[in-house]
Design a protein that fits this description.
With about 475 residues, this protein is of the alpha+beta class. Helices cover about 40% and strands about 15% of the residues. The chain folds into two domains: about 5-125, no CATH class; about 185-484, DD-peptidase/beta-lactamase superfamily (Beta-lactamase). Strand 2 and strand 3 (about 235-240) form a beta hairpin.
Length: about 475
């Protein structure tokens, strides 16, 4: 809104003079090349918005929380577009919209707190809630052993004193205390949501639930050496840059015609990105489905230091981010324990369980998701093809283990890419790395009637997801030996 209103008026009225002054400064400094004018535009807009936000932010936030526009500063004519936009957004939130956004729960919590405060002092109350960067008041005393900024100590130094000087280190449990990129095992989430929407739209009729069919065949196009990720059923090429975003190619060429089951079997990247972009009713439906399965929240295990991970909040307008999220990338991070909870829900018919440490404790069902047998069977059949199919990404385990054991296991491989710092050495930069996963569900029969065990193998700095599958089957085999 600021760009469309205040800044647009300033640009029309004053930018020419502003730019001329900047060019004179460049000449005086004897610069050989002038800065592009767009850089000056961006710089001016940032500075102007900072001044605008500093003056009005507390009143705008109060409006956003309460829906009350009686504050005197908001009566200025130029504030009308901002008031209108925030009131619309506030009314949508009150009606239950935008539930997939990560901050919505915090919004309602803060709103519940300010509802009990007189309108005239809400802004004063909000000013007491300061971010780390706002902790800029000097301390009255001097604290030895604490950080300093230019020889002085401020509130931020006191706040940071509660954080270990060299961070929390690398000794945390990778199972639940360290979030990581999830990768292809997350493809089960867009698969579930697409099936759910199709099932509901068809009135619960189970026939032909497959939501999409494409030909996954990455190839060069004749258009200046670009790439295509495949074809539609009608034979139309699907370009890599598709509808405002960048699709990710599958790792292998000539995957061929894929429906939902075959896409899970071959781990087709464009298939699940297209599910999220073209099939789901709303991009945020994918985030909502992820939360239903327990991502983005602590599992509730009775161990300290669990991390909740993160679900992106920009997929409504970031098309490339949406495509990446659908295959378990983008800013999505989670834990192996959260992934195990997701797989257990598919196995048990939709119950989201709280992990327990002592087996004698009664299992706690946190909530139940919508998962009719027809949807569950279709997804598990796709996961079975990961192991039993001709192009299954974990088909090699059939050569390593008895057929009787393998026939009762379904799973999903995952190769997650991340750019991260892998060393404590301050001079080392960030590197692109891969982490590999295999999530397995073992049943007592081949008809998915009696789920027995969920195993998630997570190997940092690996290469291919299929390398983790034998470890998962070994765990299942060992479990059977223990239970005898």
């Amino acid at each position: 809104r600021f760009h469309e209103n205040d800044f647009r008026r300033w640009r029309e009225e004053k930018f020419k003079g502003y730019l001329a002054a900047k060019r004179k400064e460049e000449e005086a400094a004897k610069k050989r090349y002038g800065r592009p004018f767009i850089d000056y535009l961006d710089e001016a807009e940032r500075e102007m918005f900072g001044q605008f936000w500093e003056r009005y932010r507390w009143h705008l936030i109060t409006l956003f929380l309460t829906g009350e526009n009686r504050l005197i500063w908001l009566q200025e004519p130029k504030m009308a577009p901002y008031v209108e936009a925030l009131l619309v957004w506030q009314q949508e939130l009150e009606a239950g919209a935008h539930v997939a956004l990560q901050w919505v729960g915090h919004y309602h919590r803060l709103k519940g707190m300010v509802d009990e405060i007189d309108l005239g002092i809400i802004a004063a109350y909000l000013k007491t809630l300061r971010s780390y960067n706002d902790l800029d008041r000097p301390l009255l005393g001097i604290y030895s052993g604490m950080r300093r900024s230019n020889g002085k100590q401020f509130e931020r130094e006191l706040a940071s004193a509660f954080y270990p000087t060299y961070g929390y280190g690398y000794a945390r449990s990778q199972a639940f205390r360290q979030a990581t990129t999830i990768g292809s095992i997350f493809k089960l989430i867009p698969a579930y949501e697409a099936l759910r929407q199709r099932y509901v739209a068809r009135g619960g009729r189970a026939r032909d639930l497959n939501p999409l069919t494409i030909v996954d065949d990455k190839h060069r196009t004749n258009d200046r050496g670009g790439w295509s990720v495949g074809y539609t059923q009608e034979g139309k090429s699907i370009p890599m840059f598709y509808r405002g975003g960048r699709l990710v190619r599958s790792e292998h060429a000539n995957v061929g015609r894929v429906d939902l089951s075959r896409a899970l079997e071959a781990s087709s990247n464009p298939y699940f990105s297209l599910l999220a972009g073209d099939v789901l009713e709303d991009p945020e439906d994918l985030c909502h489905a992820a939360r239903l399965f327990g991502f983005g929240a602590k599992t509730g295990i009775a161990l300290p230091g669990e991390i909740r991970g993160n679900i992106p909040d920009d997929v409504a307008y970031n098309r490339s981010g949406l495509y990446a999220l659908a295959i378990g990338q983008h800013t999505l991070v989670g834990t192996p324990l959260q992934t195990a909870v997701m797989l257990s829900a598919l196995a048990n018919g939709g119950k989201i369980l709280t992990p327990k440490i002592v087996s004698d404790e009664e299992s706690e069902v946190r909530w139940q998701i919508f998962l009719p047998d027809e949807m569950r069977t279709l997804m598990l059949n796709g996961m079975r093809q990961v192991v039993m199919g001709d192009k299954g990404t974990a088909r090699e385990i059939r050569k390593l283990f008895p057929a009787e054991l393998v026939s009762k296991i379904v799973g999903k491989t995952s190769t997650a890419e991340a750019v991260e710092k892998l060393s404590l050495d301050g001079t080392s930069g960030r590197l692109k790395s891969k982490h590999i996963w295999f999530g397995a569900i073992a049943f007592k029969d081949e008809n998915f009637n009696e789920p027995e065990l969920v195993v998630v193998v997570y190997l940092r700095l690996g290469e291919f997801g299929r390398l983790a599958a034998p470890l998962a089957v070994n765990m299942i085999q060992k479990w059977h030996e223990i239970c005898k």
